[in-house]
Amino acid sequence: MIVMENVYKKYPNGVVAANGIDVAIEQGEFVYVVGASGAGKSTFIKMMYREEKPTSGKIIVNGIDIAKLKSSKVPLFRRSIGVVFQDFKLLPSLTVYENVAFALEVIEESPRIIKKRVMEVLELVNLKHKTRMLPSELSGGEQQRVSIARSIVNSPSIVIADEPTGNLDPDTSWEIMKTFEQINSHGTTIVMATHNKDIVNTKKHRVIAIDGGMIVRDEQRGDYGYEA
């Protein structure tokens, strides 16, 4: 699903955030990406959905070399993946239903399909009873579940999550993890950057540790580890 070959990323200020990364993530995997602040973790994640372009190297996502993808083609590419952010990025003037439906409206899906699919994903994240509420009327955990619903409403093959529990209390974080586990159980590939040591050490999955822009550890059913 995701392949990086000899990927380098150097920012204009001289910081090298990716230093010869080689990695392959298979369909259906659940992968944690861990590392200290400034280690290159966010750049690693952002390059997967073309928020950042590598300086050199090859990045294949769903069979597309996105490093060579024209900027005009990026929106179409992103329809095949879902992205979940730490700060939710919901549209404050839209209801729960409208926030999730928006992802289908921009691709001009039919109203019948939109209603069916939106209600399906809101049921999955246990928010079917809050369709008419605004983000400001929801808890942080509920807002993140809306964000997750929006990310999967297009039935993406990959969901990329950048610190999705970073702004949430521990109990809510576990609820969000249950949602991701359920999505993964349906065959969706999950790549999650996280600082949450307890989650990584309890909910065992593959762990990729980044340090100095390099992968320093890649373990199946790994721990957070002191290296990160």
UniProtKB/TrEMBL annotation:
GO terms for molecular function: ATP binding; ATP hydrolysis activity; transmembrane transporter activity. Residues 2-228 form the ABC transporter domain. GO terms for biological process: cell division. The keyword Cytoplasm does not apply. Pfam families: ABC_tran. The keyword Cell membrane applies. It comes from the Bacteria. It is found in: Cell membrane. It is a peripheral membrane protein. InterPro entries: AAA+_ATPase, ABC_transporter-like_ATP-bd, ABC_transporter-like_CS, ABC_transpr_LolD-like, Cell_div_FtsE, P-loop_NTPase. One of its GO terms (cellular component) is plasma membrane. Keywords: ATP-binding, Cell cycle, Cell division, Cell membrane, Membrane, Nucleotide-binding, Transport. Part of the ABC transporter FtsEX involved in cellular division. PANTHER family: CELL DIVISION ATP-BINDING PROTEIN FTSE, IMPORT ATP-BINDING PROTEIN. Homodimer. Forms a membrane-associated complex with FtsX. Belongs to the ABC transporter superfamily. This is Cell division ATP-binding protein FtsE. The gene is ftsE.
